[in-house]
Amino acid sequence: MVPSRLRPPKPLGTITRGTTNPNRLRRVDRWLAGSHGVRLRRAADPLVVDLGYGAAPVTAVELFTRLRSVRDDVEVVGIEIDPARVAGAEPLARPGLSFRQGGFELPLAGRRPVVVRAFNVLRQYGEDEYEAHWDEVRGRLAPEGLLIDGTCDEIGRRSTWAAIGPGGPESLSISLRFGAFTLPSDVAERLPKALIHRNVEGERVHTYLKALDRAWLDAASLASFGNQQRWVAMCTAMRAAGWPLRDGPARWRLGEVTVAWSAVAPG
């Protein structure tokens, strides 16, 4: 028997269902490479973590490929609690891409990642648990690092994510494939754990989603020009109404919109 003081610490967290599909996380990867490419380029240590990548490592491989187009020395580490999943991923390891067992404690030998992407992970925890895991991870980030806590549907058509920095949550992003929704609020079932149970009357996120719906309906006359033009008009109207959107038309044309966390934070 190995003395307890010599045993590695138990990974923090529980094994997820592990469901994954190729290209499922393309929307958040596109946002990281676009909106936060500068964050990667100026990082002293361009270390990125794919936390809880699931039963197959395809999303970690895709993240590595996409971010290498931003900075060719980006290093991606896929972290999974299940040792069988880590063993199954090892054949895909290469310089700059590796896999290891662990959880929210981030077993990185003291290194501080500039990005931790945790997608479809925290939604499987209780509402009383997510904040402690946020705190655990953000305490291990680089000074300008981000934890991305997100959720999407099975093939990545509807997606949301919260960006959490060392000081706390900063923004909420919504990204939808045109033609895959009737109203923007259709994404509600994919909100991060911090917000999914707050989509009720009186909560900020509920007000925000309803405002998006109204602006989308008000822009119906532009539907003949395409949903892209209609989405841009919706976002333009939201900004004019005082919503603190943190992006602009270049992101809006992708079916994406990001708002400051203060506008949707739980009351």
UniProtKB/TrEMBL annotation:
| Protein name per its UniProtKB record | SAM-dependent methyltransferase
Ranges for region Disordered: 1-20
Where, if anywhere, are coiled coils annotated? none
What the entry lists under InterPro entries is as follows: SAM-dependent_MTases_sf (IPR029063)
Molecular function terms, GO-annotated: methyltransferase activity
GO biological process terms, semicolon-separated: methylation
Q: Which Gene3D superfamilies match?
A: Vaccinia Virus protein VP39 (3.40.50.150)
Q: What UniProt keywords are attached to this protein's entry?
A: Methyltransferase, Transferase
